Amino acid sequence: MIKNFSPPRLQDSKLKLFPKIIPWVSKNLSFVGFEKKTTLSFLVSWSLGGGIGFLFFFFMGPVWADQQGGQRPAPYLEYGAGGAQVAMGGATAGLRNDVSCGFWNPAGLSGLRGFQIENQYTFLGLNQQLDYFSLANGFRDKFFYGVTAFYYSAGYDLETRVGPSVNPDSIFGDTEFTFISSFAVRLSPRWSVGANFKVLSQSIGGFSGFGFGEDLGVQYRFTKFTTFGFMAQDPYTVFTYANSSYQIVPITLKAGIAHHDEKMAAKINFDLEWSSDLGFRPRCGVEWRPAEVIALRGGFWAGNLTAGTSGGSLTLNFSTGFGILMPMGDSLMELDYHLLPDRLNPGGFLHQLSLVGKFL
Q1: 281 contacts 302 by C-beta, under 8 angstroms
Q2: Contact 319, 299 (CB under 8 A)
Q3: Is residue 16 in a domain?
Q4: CATH number (domain holding residue 196)
Q5: Which of 49-58, 116-125, 205-214, 300-309 has the lowest mean pLDDT?
Q6: What are phi and psi of 54, to 5 degrees?
Q7: pTM to 2 decimals?
Q8: Are residues 43 and 15 in contact, defined by beta-carbon separation less than 8 angstroms?
């Protein structure tokens, strides 16, 4: 009998009073990359940034952790991928021009401009390890492709005990991989489609399993700055174990919209997703760039709006983070930090670091 091991669970009018102050502030902040805005946009932007900052400090207090959801294969995928995307609550159906689209919605790869690469590390307790790596590129500005890989281990010091004893009967390890190949096609200036094919594997002691699956995505651009996305995740994903038993992953449907306000240097995304085991889960995320080299992000998602199979009370789950952008001519390097709830430790947090390269 295996003990001491549990995989992650899915668990404005008064402005005239300040005719001199605002221009002075705008002028004196320009040295760190602030763009000069109208008075209204300037104040709204700072209000947005203050909201993100409040989010960050808010969840230094209690966090309602998402403890719902059954035992899906590869549950570590619920931690997400991509620094900006995780910090924005996973609201990504309308996401474009980012290497992590290969995980969230492959149709979004159609917005790529040049080659992109990302590596992400998650700081986990109990000797666990989770790494994410992805790269993507385009061909003739019409066809796009990407490769994504996840590595997860619960450790190599897991113990087996048949009965109550001080010393374990044996020690074993757990190793899991997920590989995703992504493809997207831009059908027109507004429409794009994409698909993923994924392979999953697990080896835990002498027990192993193998699975395969797919995702299908579509996006429609209302304007240059607003995109609607739809994603069918795992329409048929099956995981088969060494003893010939198998598990079919419930399909997850996601629809969302992403908007970029250039004037305010801000982004806001909203998604609504549904699956039979988790029910409805709305997600929302915001990003604000007060300077050309800084991005502040925050987001949340809600669980148990509907019971799903797990039931339980409403849960609110917050995430936050920031990015440091380092322009390199036509290219860009970005270092992201993000904080999110720990599904294994209710009220606890996980820390993630990501390094992104975008090369034109």
Answers
A1: yes
A2: yes
A3: no
A4: 2.40.160.60
A5: 49-58
A6: -60, -40
A7: 0.80
A8: yes
